[in-house]
Amino acid sequence: MKYNLKTNNNIAYNCHYHVVFCPKYRRKVLVNGVDERLKTILIETIEKWGQELVELEVMPDHVHLLVGCDPQFGIHRLVKYLKGTSSRYLRQEFPQLKRRLPSLWTNSYFCCTVGGVTLETLKRYVEGQKNR
C-alpha cells in the first residue's frame, strides 16, 4: 500500500478525516447564497491553517468535509476554527441568520478517520451528497 506522507519538523503522517456538522436545530439555512459563501470561508480557513481540503459539500442542513489534518494541529482545533470563523462571517453578512438562530452551529460534530474505505470512495460519497 502506498502512502502520501506529509511531514513537519518531527513527524510523518497521513491523516484524513470525514467531518459533518450542522446548524442549530438542523435548520435548513445553508441556502440562497449562504452555501456558496460558506464554501469560500471554509476553503480560506483550511488554507490559512495549512491543512488540506480533499472534498467539501454544503447541504441545506449540514456540511460534509473531507480534510487532511496534521495530528499535532488537531482535527478538534480545525473544526473549532471552521465553525467559529464561518459563524462570525455568515452572521455578519446574512442578518437573517441572527434572527432565526441563537448561534449558527450546534456544539457537536461527527468526525471519523478515513481508513475503513479508500479515500477515493469517501470522496465520491461526499461529492454525491447533492444528488440525493
Automatic annotation (TrEMBL):
Residues 12-129 form the Transposase IS200-like domain. SMART domains: Y1_Tnp. GO terms for molecular function: DNA binding; transposase activity. Coiled coil: none annotated. It holds the Pfam family Y1_Tnp. InterPro entries: Transposase_17, Transposase_17_sf. GO terms for biological process: DNA transposition. It comes from the Bacteria. PANTHER family: TRANSPOSASE FOR INSERTION SEQUENCE ELEMENT IS200. This is Putative transposase.
